[in-house]
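REVIEWER CHECKLIST
Item 1: Sequence provided? yes
Item 2: Single chain? yes
Item 3: Sequence as submitted:
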Amino acid sequence: MGRDIGVVKRVRPSSYVIEKRKYNGELWGHYAVFALQQTPTRHAFWQPRGTYIHRNQGWAMRRDHLQFFYPDRWYAISANYDEHGELSHCYCDVTLPWVAPLTGAHAFQFVDLELDLHAEPSTTYRIYDEDEFDAAVVDMHYPDAIRQGARDALDGLISAVQQWESPFAEIPLVLPRADLHLLEVNSPTWRQALAMLGMR
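Item 4: Structure as written out by the authors:
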């Protein structure tokens, strides 16, 4: 009688569903990402082009993105890469302090406070949605601590982008490859890709 030969299963990056909500609990939309690295201070996710954004009529992302969430900080960052894999800009959502998902969970949410920053490696930046933020403060009854926390987070991000320092300094300027979601976790190729992303 022959021996059973075990089949080694290739382990791909874990997928998560992210829900983006407003302060009043209303769902803005949701989308999928793939986990790259989780540390006590930062969680990094991969959002390849073609990812479908479930909001209203929905749309497919045209560019590759890295997304970064920071436990207890008031912002999340989506790094947008052009067709050559070079960092085009970072889009920063000012949020309620983020709580990392529990071990084993494959979905989480964050609460957007309607205030955004577009930041480029050239250190130029643009503030978006200040009118929406001011309206949300009134319409959704932001407490003073939330309003001030959001403003402080925006001011901190602006100061950081002017010198391109943390958290922007840790964001890769170039993608090593665009198939991160297809790699086998902990394989030499995977480890090399993460090292090139500064995620050792």
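Item 5: Key structural point noted by reviewer: The two ends are 46 Å apart (CA to CA).
Item 6: Recommendation: ____
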